Amino acid sequence: MYAVETDKLSKVYHSGLKAVDEVSIKLENGEIFGFLGPNGAGKSTTIMILTTLLKPTSGKAFVAGFDVATQAKSVRQNIGYVQQDSTIDEYLTGRENLELQARLNHIPKDIRTKRIDEILGIIELSDRQNEAAVTYSGGMRKRLDIGGGLLNMPKVLFLDEPTLGLDIQTRYKIWEYIKKIHDEFEMSIFLTTHYMEEADKLCNNISIIDNGKIKITDSPKALKNALGNEIVIFEINSEIKLEQLVSEIKKLATVKDVSTNGSIITVFTTSGDQLIPQIFQQASSLEIKIESISLTKPTLDDVFLSHTGRALREDEGKYDKKKMRERMRRIRA
Ligand SMILES: Nc1ncnc2c1ncn2[C@@H]1O[C@H](COP(=O)(O)OP(=O)(O)OP(=O)(O)O)[C@@H](O)[C@H]1O
Ligand SMILES: [Mg+2]
Questions:
Q1: Is 41 in the pocket of ligand 1 (CB under 6 A)?
Q2: Over the stretch 165-183, which tens digit does the pLDDT of each residue have?
Q3: How many helices, marked H, and strands, marked E, lie in the chain?
Q4: What is the CATH number of the domain that holds 305?
C-alpha cells in the first residue's frame, strides 16, 4: 500500500480548463514527495482532490489506502492538510487557533489539551501560545498553520507551498520543522513547491508538473545526474544559423541535451572542458561569433528547463537574457 497513489487522475474545471491531466504518481510510506511546478501547473488542484475537497473528473486516487471518491471520510481521518493560503484567525491566540481546529476535527476533549501542548512544542510556539496571532511573524504564522495540519497526527501530511513568500532564512527554518516532523512521526509528506532548492533539500522523489501533466518523476539526484554533471551556457551574435549550430552540437559525444532561449544556448554535458573548444570550432565553421560563454553545475532549475523547454520562473531564471548578460559581466569583471 502506498501513502498516495493516483492513476490517470484528471480534473477539468467548468470553464473547460484541464487543470490536472492524467496524473499518475506513487508516494511510498514514509517518503517526502515533491510536486514541483510553476504557477497554474495544477499542484493545488491535485492536492484538493487528494484531500477530498474537489472531485476528480476521471481517474483514481487512493490516500492511506482509501479511495478519495468513495471513502472520503476515512481519507480525512488519516490526513493533515496545510493550505497554500493561511487559515489562521489573527485575533485568536496561537493556542486558540489550534483549539478551534481540533474541535472542527472532532479530536476528543481528553486528548486535545495534551496534543496541542505537544504540537506547540514541535513548532516552537509554546512561549508565544497565548498571544494573538496578529502579533506573529510570517514564519511563526506558517509554523502555526503547519501545527494545525498535525492535530490528528496524520499518516499523510499535505503541505501546499509551505514556504511561499517567506524570506530565505525563514524558509530554511520551515524546512527544519518539516524534516523534524517527518523524522519524529515517520509521516509521509506530500508537498508542492516552486522552489527547486526546497524540493532538492527535502524530497526523496519529485514529479515535475507543467500544464497539468507530469513531465518526469525521479529522485532529485537522479534527475540532476541525467543531465550530465556540467552545463555550458553561451550567447551568439546572430540567430540566423542557430538551428544548424544546435543540431551540430547535439551530435557531440559528451552532450546530453541542448535548449535555447533566443540567442542563448544551454548545453548539458558530461565534460565542459572537452565541449567548450568544440563549441568554438562549430561556431567558427558556421561563421557565428560567440559573445560570451560560461560553465556551471546543473541544479533542479536546469532539470525543469530541460523537461519543459523553459525556466521555472521566466522572470528569475538564469537563462533570462538580461540576467545572463549581467552574470557574464560579473564573470568578466
Ligand atoms: N476553481 C477554479 N475554476 C476554474 N479554473 C481554476 C480553478 N482553480 C484553479 N483553476 C485553474 O486551474 C489551473 C491550475 O491551478 P492550480 O491552483 O491547481 O495551480 P498551482 O500549480 O497550484 O499554481 P500556484 O503555483 O499558482 O499555486 C490554473 O490555470 C488555474 O487558473
Ligand atoms: Mg497552488
A1: yes
A2: 888 888 898 999 899 999 9
A3: 12, 15
A4: 3.30.70.980
